[in-house]
Design brief:
Structural class: alpha/beta
CATH superfamily of the largest domain: 2,3-Dihydroxybiphenyl 1,2-Dioxygenase, domain 1
CATH class of the largest domain: Alpha Beta
Shape: globular
Distance between the termini: 30 Å
Number of strands: 8
Helix content: 10-25%
């Protein structure tokens, strides 16, 4: 028996707002919207999607899991600016300034990175 990654689940206070933010960032679409669950993805048959689930508690520490996003080299800076305009903000998690990634947070404070352009999972 083999398992596969199905959803990445993100806790949210405002499910519709956070789902729309991530759908815009990734150029995905909302696939399913229920009172206690919103799913986004490229299409309903995609191998992995993001599911937003409601929480009432506040985020108080840095995420132990985060998303890394990448783009084409010539688009990286423009993509960071586009994501900031959608509602993200820059965060300091101890980076030195010499990193090849930029740390941002979504409107609810979940950190993610825009990494240098990559063609494979390891290069």
């Amino acid at each position: 028996m083999t398992v596969s990654l199905h959803h990445i689940v993100i806790d949210a206070h405002d499910l519709p707002s956070l789902a729309r933010f991530w759908a815009e960032v990734l150029n995905w679409r909302i696939l399913s919207e229920r009172e206690r669950e919103i799913v986004i993805g490229t299409d309903e048959n995609a191998p992995v999607g993001i599911c937003f689930m409601p929480v009432t508690d506040e985020k108080v520490v840095k995420n132990r899991l985060h998303l890394d996003l990448t783009s084409r080299p010539e688009e990286r800076d423009a993509e960071i600016e586009r994501i900031l305009a959608l509602g993200a903000h820059r965060v300091d998690v101890g980076q030195t300034g010499a990193e090849s990634w930029t740390v941002l947070a979504d409107p609810e404070g979940n950190e993610f990175c825009v990494v240098r352009p990559k063609k494979t999972l390891i290069r």
